[in-house]
Each structure stands twice: as C-alpha cells, then as structure tokens.
Amino acid sequence: MRILSLSWEFPPFITGGLGMAVYGMVRSLLKKGVAVDLVLPAKGKYFFSLRHPEDVDNLPRVVSQIGGEKATPHSMKELKDIIGSPLSVYQTTIGMRGFGGAVEDLGSSEEFGKILDTLNDEYYLFRQVLDYTGMTVDIGKEIGCDIIHAHDWLTFPAGILLKTILHKPLVVHVHATEFDRAGGAGDGRIHNIEYTGMKCADKVIAVSEFTANLIMEKYHIEKEKISVVHNAYVMKDCPVNHRRIFDEPTILFMGRITLQKGPDYFIEVARRVLEKNKNARFIMAGSGDMERQVLHRAAAMGLGTRFLSAGFLDRDEVEQILATTDILLLPSVSEPFGIAPLEAMSRGAVAIVSKSSGVAEIIQNAFKIDFWDIDQMASTILKLIENPREFAEMSKRGREEVANLGWDEAADKILEVFGQLQETAVC
Predict the structure, then answer these.
(1) Hey, what CATH topology would domain 2-232+407-424 get?
(2) DSSP letter string over 154-169?
(3) 419 vs 68, 206, 390, 406, 423, CA distance in Å?
(4) Would you call 400 helix, strand, or coil by DSSP?
C-alpha cells in the first residue's frame, strides 16, 4: 500500500503537536510495511519517499526533480534549503499550474469556488496554501498513490483536487478545527475549507471523541464517516529531570499562547499558588497573539522572576525544558488532543490537564480538572509541592503509563480505515 501523506509540518520543522503526531504515525505505518510519500511545504517540487522506519529521522531520498534523480540531504542546512518553514513566507512559481481540468470541474461547484477565492486572497497564509496545493497536485499526478492522507485544513484543498484527478480515496485527518484554534467562531473562510474537505473525504479521522463530537455538531458530518484514532507518543530512553534550572519546583505551560490554550488561566493559577507558597517557578513556553497581554499581566501582578517567558522553542529546546519540568499544566479551553502532557509525563513530570482535552480520554495517571477551575488547579499544585512522596508516586505511574502508549495500535486503526476504502474502491 502506498500512501500520499500531506502535512504542513514534520520534525525538525514543527510549530506544534501536529508535526510530532504525523511523525509518530508515519513511523509506525512504515514499520508495518506501508510506503509513504510525504509532501511538505517546500521551495520547489520536493517530496520525501519514506520506506523504512529510520527514514523519518533523516528524511532521505529527497526527489529533487519529478521523474529525476534522487538525492539524500546530508545536513540540516541542506534540509532547510529544501523545506520551507511552516510559518515563513515562501514563494514558488507553481501557483495554479498543474491543477488541470480538476480546477475547472471543482471550480464550478459553489463550495470549491469559495476555496479558490479564499486561496487567491492577499493574506500570506492563504497564498502559501495555494502554492502548496499547486506543488502537491503536480507531485501527486506524477507519482500516484493508493490513498491520499491529508492532515488539517492547510492540506485539504490539495487532497480534494488529487482525489478528483487520481480517482483515489481521500482520508482527512482532523487534529484541530478552527473552533478550537479560535476559541469561538473563528474565520469563516477556514471553516469552509474544513467543511468542504470533510464533505469530499471518503473518511474522516478525528484525534479524539471530543473532536469527533465537535465535527458532528458543528460541521454536520455523519457519525458513520468518522473514525476516532487517538494520538500516541514515541517515548525516548531519556533520564528523568537530568538537568534542573531552578532548585524550586518548576511548573510549565507549553503551547501556543492563544485563547484556545488557556494562558490566562495559567497566569491566574500562578498568582494563587505564589500567594501561598513562594517556593515555585512558573515558565510559559510558546508564542501567540496573547503573549504580550500575558506578560503585561504578569508584571502587573508583581510575579517577578517567579513567572518567566521562554518564548518559542525549537525541538532541542523543548527537550531541554521538559527535562527541567516538575509539573505540566494544560488549562486548554478546547484541546482536540494535546501531546505536551505525554511528552512531559515521559520525563517524569506530573500532568494537570483540562477535562476539555482529548488526551484526558486516554490517560489515567494525571489530574483532570475543568479549565475554569483555577482554585482546584492551584490547590493541586500546592499539594504536589508540599507532598514529595505523592508527587514521586504519580510521576512514576505516569511515566510507566506513557511507555505503553505507542503508535503501533493507532497505526493499526488507521490501516483498518485505509483497508476499508481499498475494499470498497470509493472514489
């Protein structure tokens, strides 16, 4: 089976949990003998022909020209010269070329006509998606596939067009929706792309029951079309808290600093904890549209050096800060899944997660609290700080639990979805 996997990010080029999730599932699919051709935002027609599990770590066999010779990049610099950063403005000369008759066919429909209007907008992100779509369609027409697997809305337009051109089944994988990201109604143009992608897909994979229910409620996608496949985590053999920054217990927020992730709740929890126990350090790692607001509020509260901002972290820096973390707090208002708690737990940290998160559906050895219950979150942190034995026991159980949450079971469920589509030959 040959899968054309469309993703906006992949390690080492990541901006959030989606990249790590795609990494984990692709690695396990490769272990099961599936061939994966991965298409990422690139400065030209490049894709990654992955055939072995170790390929996810060195991204070998970059095809420099469609139908031409294959070349393996030998350094991170060479990779950076090939792959466009998911958040950078990159330009290609592909544009609308390569869409062929598919654009004419779909462009006549009201739904896809709106997508094309959106992607032709001057807003740079939509223009990036248009470039990615053109590049991906050109690649897909050249190499073909058995299944098209598109991750989140940024790749849905390419997936829809390739389904029409190749007459192959389309699976859209929903890691988050605009309702999650915006913490409310959000951008109607993105909603339209999400809706059209899910409507045109032969199957929709949701990362949690939370997300599946939202898809049914907000997008009116029938239950029978949706399969839930929870994310997992590839646990590395790493020591627990091998390097500390502070002697005091460290509480970490890690994620985008946006309304969805609840950074305002995190800062309020910090204030309440520090009012009763100064023996703690709070670190906020990430970036987003609420970053300045949160820092100003922390200063106004007089939290001083007890509340620190780490800014956006690359993958190596994430590994370093997780190694120093005692407690990870995820107070998300809306969280389709949430990989960060699993990453932290694997390194011995205790996780406090919002009940409104997909990860809460699969873990037992973490504290699950309503995102708005600031008092309960603060009292839980204080209790852990003041009871080292209870902290150590929870840490041990959490680490053991995450060790058993590998991607192989999730890959089996994804393969079951793929197999059903191949059997029914839905186009």
Answers:
(1) Rossmann fold (3.40.50)
(2) GGHHHHHHHHHHH---
(3) 31, 17, 46, 21, 6
(4) helix
Torsion of CA 20, 58, 30, 88, to 10 degrees: 40
Q: How many Cα atoms sit within 13 Å of 301 on the Cβ side?
A: 22
Structure tokens belonging to residue 113 = 């006509």
- Which tokens is 27 given? 């690695």
Report the distance separating Cα 421 and Cα 162, nearest Å: 16
Pair 399, 366: CB distance under 8 Å: no
Q: β-pairing, 2-6 with 35-39? A: parallel
If residue 254 lies in a helix (H) or strand (E), which one and from where to where?
A: strand 250-254
- Asked if residue 12 has a cis previous peptide bond (ω within 30° of 0), the answer is yes
How far the first Cα of the chain sits from its last, in Å, is 16
Q: What angle do CA 29, 399, 338 make, to 5 degrees?
A: 60
Number of Cβ within 10 Å of residue 242's Cβ equals: 11
Residue 265 — left, alpha, or beta (φ > 0 → left; ψ -120 to 50 → alpha)? alpha
Q: Any idea where the domains of the chain sit in the sequence? A: 2-232+407-424, 250-403
Cα separation, 198 vs 219, in Å, equals: 8
Nearest to 371 by CA among 361, 383, 357: 357
Q: What is the pLDDT of residue 92?
A: 34
Tokens of 303: 């939290």
Tell me the CATH architecture of domain 250-403: 3-Layer(aba) Sandwich (3.40)
Tell me, what's the pLDDT at 61? 58
Query: What average pLDDT values come out for the chain (427 residues) when binned by 10 residues?
Result: 94 81 95 95 84 86 56 66 52 39 52 76 83 90 94 95 93 93 81 94 96 95 96 73 79 90 94 94 91 89 90 83 93 88 92 92 95 96 95 94 90 95 64
Q: From 250, 206, 240, select the one nearest 225 (Cα to Cα).
A: 206
Q: Give the pTM.
A: 0.85
Cα angle: 312, vertex 186, 271; to 5 degrees:
50
Angle value at C-alpha 339, between 129 and 416, nearest 5 degrees: 75
Asked whether this chain's domains 2-232+407-424 and 250-403 adopt the same fold, the reply is: yes
Token code pair at residue 202: 């032969």
Q: How many CB atoms lie within 10 A of CB 426?
A: 14
Q: Which two tokens stand for residue 278?
A: 């100064």
- Tell me the torsion sign for CA atoms 46, 51, 57, 61: negative
